[in-house]
Amino acid sequence: GKRRIPISAGKNAVLMDIVYGHPIYYQSMNADAADTISTDELWPGGSIGFNLTGSGTTFAMWDEEGVRTSHGEFSINRVTQKDNPSFINSHATAVAGTLVASGLELFNVGPPLISIGKAAKGMSFEASLSAYDFDDHFIEMGDEVLSTDLQLSNHSYGVSTGWVKDSLGNWFWRGETTTSQNEDWKFGFYLINFSDEVDDLVYNSDSYLPVFSAGNDRAGDDNGPLNQPVDHTAFFGGVPTFFTGVTRSLDGDAGGFDTMNALGSAKNVLTVGSVDDIIGGYNGPGSVVVSSFSSFGPTDDGRIKPDVMGNGLSLLTPLNTADGAYQFISGTSFAAPNVTGSLNLIRQLYLQLHPNETSMLASTLKGIAIHTADEAGNIGPDYRFGWGLLNAVTAARLVEDDANSAAKAHIKEVTLLDGDFIEFPVLSNGSGPLRITICWTDLPGTASPNIILDQTTLMLRNDLDLRVTDPPGSATHFPWVLNPAVPAANATTGDNFRDNVEQVFIGNPVTGQYTVKVTHKGSLQNGLQKVSILISGNIPQPKPRFYVSDVSTPSTNTYALLWPAVVGQNYKLQSSPDLNIWTDVPGEISATKVNVAAEVTESTGADKFFYRVVEVD
Question: Using CA atoms, how far apart are residues 159 and 331, in angstroms rounded to an integer?
Fold first, then answer.
């Protein structure tokens, strides 16, 4: 097995790889949690009648060691350990509990006599969970996607970064002293073989979303020794070296910024930070308090991380020491499964409402989480709260409203071809804010072959641009942008050339028809980019009558068929010699505009040939 170094009770730093000649370690990073992000309202008995439990769904987790699968909270065979870890582990068992614990009616011995199991209820408490240790996670993640069509997983660990104290009280500083005496280069860094590898995995899988914890490098022992100098071990040229009488900065820049984990810094994952309990649920931005330990962005190239926030403070969840044991535990490690288990319910609802579909794009699920998040921190996104606090109810309502619209009024999945653009109208009645978000799974960034401190090279490969035009056409609304040089500053609007998420927010729209347009800079890598578009505050319009509205002849033996389309709907051409047997013309057509044209070529030697257009589920 890989080398493990105890850093606290039940928690180890694990040597995973050698990169740039430098050792890379991993380390691990419920009722109140469900209340904080409104997940409990999706359960049976909730106020909105969705009755979601996770039943019939399966998702996965990777963690430091194994889960105590026999714990009473996991019922019979509901959590399956699919590899052979050396030990069962308190951290892994706690994460699994936050994901899928049943919420049994168990009681402690008191006094006072209090219900334990109900308070430990997991977010998807009737779902099945596949569990792995993180030793071979990228290989296993790929295998799960191929063999089981895995669509969602939780990862409450990250690259060990900055100051770390082992279980004996010895201090380690994970930075490289030949690069910087005070800042670990791995904070916010797009790390080769790690950040780029998980981005590549998501890009190639299309519908698989991994959720990662942001890290806990902003307070206490995770931030560094408060009384210095202290004897410690650090790296000198990749070699562990003992230092005495040397003072180094605590982790993070002023205000705690630049403490984001390297895995959480990947583009295509959903990265989750932690907030404190909000009993009774969200009550305005002032009700959201970031947990003292939760890591902040930006990434080194200025991207927005974390993406969203969950509750990771003092969660009651199963413990590995006995089948009826419980523990209170905190960290972004538990904010992540608070979010992951809740998104599994959103996935369950989506599949219920779209019985002919097997999945949504990973960028759609990620985009829904971001688009429907409650405002927290500064107005718009920021580097502390990301896009805000996950709101499971708002996310569920968006999915339901879109399914009821019949014309993809709120959720669109579109394939943008190189040189093309997406354009469609949205109608506002002026009664509330209009919000449009685009999210796409980008190709992996070009990771540096060398250690670079605070590398600013942009990792975005396909740069899409979202613009929304006023009904009179007199004003164009731009997406939110942040300035990484002033990380505490409020978001402004402009050209976002860093993130693979863009959002236009119009707080006081006028009554009328706005125009949404998505373009791209340069040439699209691989010739296309799938993009998810989320819209709220708009008035759904009826689905247009589906018919071939025109046929033209652009060249000899070639015909162009034109029809009114639903943007985000896929279509297919079919041909027939006799109107009895229809054959698919290869390829699908993703509608990027409200009118779509497709060309067909006359069949050689045929007296007559017929073509038609069909919708694809």
Answer: 15
Peptide bond just before 111 cis, omega within 30 deg:
yes
Q: Which helix (H) or strand (E) holds 366?
A: helix 362-371
Angstrom distances, CA of residue 605 to CA of 253, 515, 550, 554: 73, 45, 24, 20
CB atoms within 10 A of CB 289: 13
Q: What is the pTM of this model?
A: 0.94
For residue 154, give the 3-state DSSP assignment. Answer: strand
The interaxial angle of helices 362-371 and 392-405, nearest 10 deg, is 120
Close Cβ partners of 457 (under 8 Å, ≥ 6 residues apart): 301, 446, 448
Please state the three-class secondary structure of 466-503 as a single string: EEEECCCCCCEECCEECCCCCCCCCCEECCCCCCCEEE
Residue-wise pLDDT tens digits, 467-514:
999 998 889 999 999 999 999 999 999 999 999 999 999 999 999 999
Looking at 72-76, 452-456, 465-469, 503-507, which range is the least confident one? 72-76
Q: Which two tokens stand for residue 511?
A: 């009554």
Given a contact cutoff of 8 angstroms between Cβ atoms, the answer to whether 43 and 53 are in contact is yes
- Only one residue has tokens 């190709």, namely 443
The answer to whether residues 216 and 331 touch, using CB atoms and an 8 Å cutoff, is: yes
Residue given tokens 């990947």 in the structure block: 266
Query: From CA 422, how far away is CA 431, in angstroms rounded?
Result: 26
Name residues whose C-beta falls within 8 Å of residue 544's C-beta, 6 or more positions apart in sequence.
Answer: 407, 564, 565, 566, 594
